[in-house]
Amino acid sequence: MRPRLIGSCFIILLAFSAAFAADEAPPWLLQAAKITTPEYEKDLPAVVLQREQHVTVSEDGRVTTVTTFAVRILIREGRGYAEAVEFYESDAGKVREMRAWLIKPSGLVRKYGKEDIVDAVEDPNDVYNESRYKMIDASKDADAGAVFGYQATTEQRSIFSQDVWTFQNRLPAIASRYILTLPPGWAAKTVTFNHEKVEPTISGSTYTWELDNLSPIKPEPSSPRVASLAPRLAISYFPPGDSPSNNFKTFSNWSEVSYWLTQLHDPQAVPNEAVSAKVRELTASSKTELEKIQAIATYVQNIRYISIDIGVSRGGGMRPHAAMDVFAKSYGDCKDKANLMRAMLKVVGITAYPVVIYSGDADYVREEWASPHQFNHCIVAVKVQDETKVATIITHPKLGRLLIFDATDDNTPVGDLPDQEQGSLALIVAGESGSLVRMPVTPAESNLLDRKIEASLAADGSLTAAIKEKAAGRWAVGYRREFRGLSRPDYQKAIESWITSGASAAKVSKVEARDDLRADRFDLDIDFTAPAYAQLMQDRLLVFKPAIISRRESLSLTEAKRQHPIMIKATAYSESVSVKLPAGFVVDEMPDPVKLETSFGSYATTYEVKDDQLLFTRKLVQRTATLPVDQYASVRGFFEKIRAAEMAPVVLARK
Amino acid sequence: MKNIPRYFLLLVVAVCFGLCTFGQVWAGDEWRAIDPAELSSKTAVVEKDADAEALFWDVRVSDEVEGNDVRTVLTHYIRIKIFTERGRESQSKVDTPYLSNWQITDIAARTVTPDNRIILLKKEDVFERSIVRSSGLKIKAKSFSMPGVEPGSIIEYRWREVRNDRLANYIRLQFQRDVPVQLVKYHIKPLTNPNFPYGMRMQLFHGRNTPFVKEKDGFYGTSMENVPAFHEEARMPPEDQVRPWMLVYYTEDQKLAPAEYWRETGKKYYERFKARTKMSDDVKKAAADAIGDAATPEQKLERMFEFCRGKIKNINDDASGMSAEDRAKWKENKTPSDTLKRGLGTGQNIDFLFATMAIAAGFEVRMVNMADRSDIFFDPQFPDDYFISTYDIAVKVGDNWSFFDPASTYVPFGMLRWQEEGQDALLADPKTPAWIKTPMSPPEKSLEHRKGKFTLMEDGTLEGDVRIEYSGHLGLDKKEYNDDDSPAEREKTLRDSLKSRLSTAEISDIKIENVTDPIKPFVYAYHIRVPGYAQRTGKRLFLQPAFFQHGLAAMFTPSERLHPIYFNYPWSEKDEIEMDLPAGFALDNPDSPPPFESQNISRYQVKLAASTDGRKLVFDREFFFGGNGSILFDEKGYSGLKRLFDILHQNDEHTITLKQTTGPAN
């Protein structure tokens, strides 16, 4: 019998929750609890009965939000949804009130109040961040059949007159509404994303947008993010006559957003003598514009990522720290890095602009709504001459050739862009010349893994092999991230684990990695032996798979049906394997070559016996595409055929 | 001493924050001089590939009293050499979490760059944050990022931490960090007060420190040199069984030798046991009713065991259906009779009801206390009962003691939780307490018994029905994992597990049985179809008959090993597979993978046969590991153990050939 131990601070805090009492739920929650919901799939954890936010805007810049939420727990795994969470910025806001109730299947009600509230920082890993949240966690008391509801009032002072409302997350929602009450004479405009336009009902100066009976959004592999699937409302409100309010910042087009952000960024991008001296040192041997950019980029990439956000609600989260301070401390966040890079480029006469972007979902930012709220990341656009040629240059109608670069991602070199940013809309912050532009997408050929394997098979089935890989683009980023992220012994272990997954009991005798970030290359040489790679059958047949490593042995697209489009990213690999065959054996059976050609990719294998060598090649090219659901069977079939091809054995027979 | 309740939070806080890992002493107001050789060094001393290395780590721990208030004051000073970017990333952000009635003061930090520039941390770059607050508790942190760090830099920082209302009692001070340390020093000052009749003790585990030396101002110092970084490995013993660390605690100054200490402790424990096994008529009756017509002592005990386990609901069990607030309202049963009347109780209540019933039935019964094997492997030469916090009920049957734990719902009769098996246990007794060993359940007690009836198609698709039964510790693990899940989630767990090794599998008719049944084995049953299971070539089909191992990775893949290898418990596997073969194909002289055996620790054997008409393949596989209770292996034995599991993996991947006898069907 073990004594029960308390394992974390949170559990201690939550254990302070008061005991149940015979409480009463408010009428709105009792009414929500009576709602009959449709029949869902049996693994759906919960259904949202009511999702509502009522935002009241005062002329003095105060925004009061009353959130009303009710959810029915359908299975035990849904208990985590019995949770009230309200975010706020501690410098300019507070959660004024928060109450919650749980109606058990028996009808018994538990009320949660002040004593149950936990107040915590949003990201405990940040050195300082004013973003916090208050939470009531009723999950420990909830079970299938229970209805949880909460009501919270938050107050915030904001300089922005914009808001975003997502009608649902992955859970279905029976009723979802956003209510906006404005001062008399004010007006609101909205844009609806991922859904046909939602029109409001208007009563006086109160607007209500509502959607009902929203279906669940099932998680699926290679699917668009939920933010690109769930109906979303972007709201902007304006004082009478569209005249600018003293208390709110309004934007009617992207140029205005650019202009406003430029005011925040430009004064910070001033180099001092220390910065200038460093730039001179870094670029002393640089002969071309690209080399200068690369030298500075590498330096800025290597500055530590540390986020310190102060005055977020007043736009502080969008204003970088002064370049000279970031340089002196050698740490900063994405906008600090972009800003420092601008300042450093300025020293060598190169102009650069901040670029604000949404990192994590290339479809998130929409042109129809001009707002800084659409972004969560900052990168840089460097104005380059015609002589500079890399894959991530775009041509801006007013600013000319711009090289797009992310100074925060230290694994992605100049000339490449992180996956999640490629193809996204982003705002070039360049005063009134700034505009929303599409980020470049690198082609499959820029993301190539070239692998050559020289192997020798012995009559007892043992294999000796030497692998030489040359990775570029996405492949190199992945390889580099692993190489840099792991200690040397752990990297060795990771390689051993990878090799033995294809060749059981393999002994790796050499692992040699060569990383050249600037050249976008990561080379990896591995030697290994595997004692029984081929199986000797009845002392007469030797059977082995010529796709020795990194076989596609598993599939991610395995479900028979699909709800959402399939997103495919550009990538390519090319492999040639030469296997010296053991003396006394001849090839008895070889798989048929495979050749697949589709709109989103191609795949081919070849087999050839030359003297005492088996030559095997495979080549995959995958093109960036978002494919409609009706092409799911074709996509799934494509990868199933690749899997089958890579599992196909060669049979040798004793002469 | 450990019953002083106000000190309990100290342990909790240590668990929450891992604060003990910061422990180090700093004596002066100035930074210590840096050796130029250290600044210019390019590689670590303790581990050559280290990304960073602590040059020293110094902590002063001082227990103090002021009026009626006690406190522990810790002063930390650490100096770290950064060698790589990875070292810079991992070491240069510092958080010092603390409770609201603690203080963190005197934070100072500086970076010395390779070119000997000194960059001091500015006051305004130290941020105080309230990490989390709730009614009654607040956890704060002071955080800073070291300025101007680059590979080659030396960073150093120090701070003072005052923990009010507690002493350094039963705290674990660590000597190992995530980077290697050249020199770890602890300076400890115990509380000395005429009204405080306890003395501080320090016990080191798994390392070699210097003897404590008396220093000035009442401190005692010890150190350890060249401590490598802690590296986690798969299947290693519990962390505190391999890391060097020191337990600091107060105890009455009895100067008892271990044997004497345990004798006294065993007697005290017996008194507690006696108080919790108060006999009553209703317990006697319940014992008699439960025993019924059982004849042998084992049968009688089993009936009482199943009564306690089956009829008394354990409120601590997460599958009991009791919510957090139900538990909060719970009022403790005072006697076994209370437990019996209410039909529910804590685990302790259930165990003591069983003990009382066994006494009523005429058995000699005791309580045994032992350490938890998932925390540490306890050595009774350590004369303190801090570690032996878990317990079971011992009943004498014949000349031997048998052990029981009816409070653990899924532990079968005759077994204990694996954490309590094979452990030295203190048998409480009024006269002669003794250390006895709890048995380790043999491999056959924890069996994964898998049966599959399949049909293989000529295109390589395999389809059929599977039933798997898990008993013993394997069954317990499965039940514990699944019992709190909904049926849908349990199915998902099974599907995900199958998909991870057979990604093309289509699974249907899933039945998951006995998830919350305390006695019956946990069962999975399902229908499965696996396209592409066997590989088809022009004239052959290649088939891996070991269906249940298809797609599994080898147990051990790294070539090197730092720590011992540790399995929680012995286990066994038995597979019975029948496979109907496709028309037009015949087995091509199939051979079996060879059996192996390793000193009764492990055995593997396979029987592969075809029916007389050649249309059906029969594949039986048996494997066990952990015979003779062998579950812990020295790291020097890693290569041999790896070889055994590599051979097992290769044997499981063994493929047989089916030859085409007729042309392909149209």
| Percentage beta strand of chain B | 35-45%
Q: Please mark out the parts of chain B with pLDDT under 50 across 5 or more consecutive residues, or reply none.
A: 1-28
Greatest interface and its residue counts? A-B, 86 and 95 residues
Distance linking N and C termini of chain A: 66 Å
Radius of gyration computed on alpha carbons of chain B: 30 Å
Gyration radius of chain A, rounded: 29 Å
Helix content of chain A: 10-25%
Notable characteristics:
heterodimer, A: 655 residues, alpha+beta, eight-stranded mixed beta sheet, 38 strands, 17% helix, globular, disordered N terminus, B: 666 residues, 13 helices, 35 strands, 21% helix
What topology emerges from the helices and strands here?
The complex is a heterodimer of chains A (655) and B (666).
Chain A (H helix, E strand, L loop, with lengths): L8 H6 L12 H7 L12 E12 L4 E12 L9 E7 L3 E11 L5 E4 L5 E4 L6 E2 L1 E7 L9 E11 L4 E5 L6 E9 L5 E7 L7 E3 L2 E9 L17 E7 L15 H12 L7 H11 L5 H13 L2 E2 L2 E2 L13 H7 L1 E2 L1 H14 L4 E6 L19 E7 L9 E4 L3 E6 L19 E4 L7 E3 L9 E10 L5 E9 L1 H13 L2 H15 L4 E10 L4 E10 L4 E3 L3 E4 L21 E3 L2 E10 L4 E5 L5 E3 L3 E10 L2 E10 L2 E3 L4 H16 L2 E5 L1
Parallel strand pairs in A: 1-11, 7-17, 16-18, 25-32
Antiparallel strand pairs in A: 1-2, 2-9, 3-8, 4-5, 4-9, 6-8, 10-15, 11-14, 12-15, 13-14, 19-20, 19-23, 20-22, 21-22, 23-24, 25-26, 26-28, 27-28, 29-30, 30-38, 31-37, 32-36, 33-38, 34-35, 35-36
Helix pairs in contact in A: 4-7, 5-7, 6-7
Chain B lengths: L7 H10 L18 H5 L11 E15 L2 E14 L2 H7 L1 E7 L2 E11 L5 E3 L6 E8 L2 E9 L8 E11 L6 E4 L6 E9 L8 E8 L7 E2 L5 E8 L11 H4 L2 E8 L5 H19 L4 H11 L5 H15 L1 E2 L9 H6 L6 H7 L1 E2 L1 H14 L4 E6 L19 E8 L2 E5 L19 E4 L6 E4 L9 E10 L5 E9 L1 H11 L4 H15 L4 E8 L8 E9 L4 E2 L3 E4 L21 E2 L4 E10 L4 E3 L8 E3 L3 E9 L5 E10 L6 E2 L4 H15 L3 E5 L6
Helix pairs in contact in B: 6-10, 7-10, 9-10
